Amino acid sequence: MMTGLSQGEFNIDRMCWLAGVSRASYYRHWLDSAPRRAETGLRDLIQKMALGNAHYGYRRIAALLRREGWQVNHKCILRIMREDNLLCLRARPFVPVTTNSRHGWHVVPNLAKGMLLNGLDQLWVADITFLHLAEEFAFLAVVLDAFSRKVVGWALDTHLRASLAIEALEMAIANRQPEPGSLVHHSDRPIHLRSLLRTSAASRYPGEHEPCREL
């Protein structure tokens, strides 16, 4: 029993003996996990820089990191930003024109704006957030019912691919089983949710999907 012991009462040898592991195994685990902990800290900083500077590519992010004292090369930054789906945040420089017709996305109205809700399963709101764990990141996709403000679907994984949002939406549909054409699926995170509309699975979902307007 190790309850009631003050911090620092045992040295490493004593702790290893109590845990039933060798000293070599302890150090091997520590050395193996150290790179993961370091990369988790790096990913955290890259996430903040990329989301705060959406027009920055991986080379400019790498330059910012080097100014912060990180010894990293641009290939490492490219790999991390690609894995975390941050490269798509980069946008064209702003051009003051009234319209921009040079995009491949179908323009949809803001179906959620002005909706008067009087019951469940009329408007679902989707969002994605990232969780900073000890040695890695996890990404949480949720679908909320706007009327009850309760979670109706969610998905958790270590990637930020479109399948994460799809899994959360599929859970919501399985849980609530809404009538076809009876609800609006809304998100104000177009970067992460646009891919949903490009999948053939989206055509099977009931209701309307409009991922690029704010409530």
From TrEMBL:
<dbReference type="InterPro" id="IPR001584">
    <property type="entry name" value="Integrase_cat-core"/>
</dbReference>
<protein>
    <recommendedName>
        <fullName>Integrase catalytic domain-containing protein</fullName>
    </recommendedName>
</protein>
<dbReference type="InterPro" id="IPR025948">
    <property type="entry name" value="HTH-like_dom"/>
</dbReference>
<dbReference type="InterPro" id="IPR036397">
    <property type="entry name" value="RNaseH_sf"/>
</dbReference>
<dbReference type="InterPro" id="IPR048020">
    <property type="entry name" value="Transpos_IS3"/>
</dbReference>
<feature type="domain" description="Integrase catalytic">
    <location>
        <begin position="105"/>
        <end position="215"/>
    </location>
</feature>
<dbReference type="InterPro" id="IPR012337">
    <property type="entry name" value="RNaseH-like_sf"/>
</dbReference>
<dbReference type="GO" id="GO:0015074">
    <property type="term" value="P:DNA integration"/>
</dbReference>
<dbReference type="InterPro" id="IPR050900">
    <property type="entry name" value="Transposase_IS3/IS150/IS904"/>
</dbReference>
<dbReference type="GO" id="GO:0003676">
    <property type="term" value="F:nucleic acid binding"/>
</dbReference>
<dbReference type="Pfam" id="PF13276">
    <property type="entry name" value="HTH_21"/>
</dbReference>
<dbReference type="Pfam" id="PF00665">
    <property type="entry name" value="rve"/>
</dbReference>
